[in-house]
Design goal:
Layout lengths: L2 E5 L2 E4 L4 E8 L8 E6 L6 E6 L6 E3 L7 E6 L4 E6 L8 E7 L16 E2 L3 E6 L1
Parallel strand pairs: 2-11
Antiparallel strand pairs: 1-3, 3-8, 4-5, 4-9, 5-6, 7-8, 9-10, 9-11
């Protein structure tokens, strides 16, 4: 059974950077496609970035392309989300999630992820 714990959230001014980490427990977790999602108050949970088990396939939401970088270190059982040039529009609770399997656009849909972390708050002030 896979469990996920996010860390690294916080408050930052616009233009700043944060790096989120997602610690994966459960040995099988390193073989799972992983995703980062975010949810702002009153809004749906949106896809941010996804990475396959070995980092060979990465996708980003258009809103974060060129600013965010997803990566994983399977030796450390950790997935990262480096967030640069943050704007107030990036303010949300950020969740990492593990999928038992997804393909293409499926990997951008929350319902293809079975395990979720508790979320970490990111607040960007102008």
């Amino acid at each position: 059974q896979v469990q996920l714990v996010e860390s690294g959230g916080g408050s930052v001014q616009a233009g700043g950077s944060l790096r989120l980490s997602c610690a994966i427990s459960g040995r099988s977790g390193v073989f799972h496609p992983m995703g980062w999602f975010r949810q702002a108050p009153g809004k749906e949970r949106d896809f941010v970035a996804g990475i396959n088990w070995n980092g060979g396939r990465i996708t980003y939401a258009d809103s974060v392309k060129g600013r965010f970088v997803i990566s994983r270190d399977n030796g450390k059982n950790t997935v990262y989300l480096q967030m640069n040039s943050l704007t107030p529009g990036d303010t949300a609770v950020y969740y990492c999630a593990a999928s038992l399997g997804c393909s293409g656009y499926e990997c951008q849909a929350p319902n293809f992820y079975q395990t979720w972390g508790q979320g970490t708050q990111v607040t960007v002030s102008s």
